[in-house]
Description:
about 190 residues, alpha+beta, five-stranded antiparallel beta sheet, about 25% strand
Amino acid sequence: MKKSILIVLLLGVLGVGGLLYFIKSKQSTNLADQSPSQSENQPLEAAPEPKIKDSPKKAKYLVIKEWGVRMKLSDGVTDAYYKYSDNYNMESIMLYRKSTAKVEGCAGDAILGIIRATNGGIITPGGAKLEEVLPNADQYPDKQLQKIGKYYFFASGPQAPCFNDPDSAAEKQLNQISSPIYEAYKTLEGI
Length: 191
């Protein structure tokens, strides 16, 4: 039982890395061929929060229109965007920040990938179906697997870092840039 959980997790991590690599390489070579139905570089939208007394600020959200969900962004995040894809029998988005360009070797790299599925659908980049993953859902940390309405959402970061030297200034800088995106995913909600 523990081996099967580890195998599913390993396949998921490897699959996310492969998906991120494939999507990045496909986007960089086929940017001119994208159909107008694909959403790219979606700007931030200020979405109204429920009215609460003494709430002077409006929260900022990254709204994913194709899925009818949003993520609350922290005050310092003004450069977040996503790219939507409906390829290979799965729907996915890749989350980005323009500020990753400040980290050598990381310009244009996605920070987080999210896959959406319902029963019978593929939920991990490794090809695991939702019903194969759900019995072990408690094994996923920090809301990596979430349910909103009838859909499940699975998030995973890149398989490998975009910088060469671990424990470098680049790693610390990238962590500062990407941490708010991981936290925003935890606030994913329907709209």
